[in-house]
Amino acid sequence: QGYKDHPDAFATLQQLACSDIYVLVRRTAIEQLAQGYQDHPDTLALLQQSARSNTDSRVRATAIEQLAQGYQDHPDTLALLQQSARSDPDSRVRRTAIEQLAQCYQDHRDTLPLLQQSARSDTNWELRITAIEQLAQGYQDHRDTLPLLQASVRSDTDSWVRITAIEQLAQGYQDHRDTLALLQQSARFDTDSDVRVTAIEQLAQGWHDRVAWPTANQPWLFEFLCDRILHDPFERKERWDDNPRQAALKAILEYYPNHSQTRSLLQDRADHDSDPKLRKFAQKELVKLSSFS
User: Fold this and answer.
1) Among residues 177, 192, 198, which one has the least CA distance to residue 247?
2) Span 61-82, pLDDT tens digits
3) What is the pLDDT of residues 77-106, one digit of tens each?
4) What residue numbers bound the domain in which 13 lies?
5) Is 250 helix (H, G, I), strand (E, B) or coil?
6) Any domain includes 144
7) pLDDT band at residue 250, thresholds of 50, 70 and 90?
8) Is the pLDDT of residue 255 over 50?
9) What is the DSSP string of 96-145?
10) Is 214 a domain residue?
11) Can you say whether residue 161 is alpha, beta or left, with left for phi > 0 and alpha for psi between -120 and 50 degrees?
12) Would you put residue 9 in left (φ > 0), alpha (ψ -120 to 50) or beta?
């Protein structure tokens, strides 16, 4: 940056961007070229070449970012990003291209279908997550977004994708009549305990001060959480696993600390839960309740 006007600076950065043995050096050189020499006639071609054919995925991703941010209006940039999003062999590069398309070309007619395709069928679960997030944030009101999120919650094979779709539904479509039922279904029946934990947490956060549609004055959430505390089938395999029964109990302690059944639920779990970690948690919470009573 301090030697931008030096006659050798551009050529040095070019050489570093193309052939330095260290990935970080190549990426930094690309960033400096794009930001400091955007109007130089050779910069665009170097970025395009790096995005298409550099052997390192991190370098390709950096070039894509710089093209989208600095050359958004160039006629070749959109096509290059689309090609990278569809066919780059590395998921990191495809994710970067998806993000840049969603942020810089949201209104282009090809962006939404590409995001939808990626969310439904890309082989990489992290990329499907990225596409789902971009759809939920940038296309919330499009008629196809809600059904796509619902389908991901129900049938995506990866638990983290289902978790992301649950979070986006709970945060962006709380008022839709199908969201509550779908989250309840996930909280009860998803085969992955992390997904069930997320569904329970989102239900508690989003609906603790609401009534169950369409029936008013129904203490449904407390009863639902009680049911999960008593009947979730979680069996601990690893010490770091999250227990849905504990997630439901935490929600009751947060939102219903003074309910007449809260202490008895804690006592029951402290005495009888099959998970020693949950029993210990319940015992600690009982001590806290006793100290405040």
Assistant:
1) 198
2) 999 999 999 999 999 999 999 9
3) 999 999 999 999 999 999 999 999 999 999
4) 1-101
5) helix
6) no
7) very high
8) yes
9) HHHHHHHHHSTTSTTHHHHHHHHHHH-S-HHHHHHHHHHHHHH-TTSTTH
10) no
11) alpha
12) alpha
